[in-house]
Amino acid sequence: MNNLFANVSRRAFLAGAASFSTMLLSACDHGGGQTATGGGSAGASDTFRSVDDIKKAGTVNIGYFSDKAPFGYVDKDGKPAGYDVVFGNRLAKDLGVEANYISTDGLNRVPFLQSNKADIMLANFTVTDERAEKVDFSLPYMKIKLGIVSPESAVIKSVDELKGKKLIVSKGTTAETYFEKNYPEVTMVKFDSYADAYNALLDGRGDAFSTDNTEVLAWVKSNPGFVVGVDDLGNADTIAAAVHKGNTSLLEFINNEITGPLAEENFFHKDYEETLKPVFGDDVDPETIVVEGGKV
Question: Which family is this sequence assigned to (predicted)?
Answer without folding.
Answer: Belongs to the bacterial solute-binding protein 3 family.
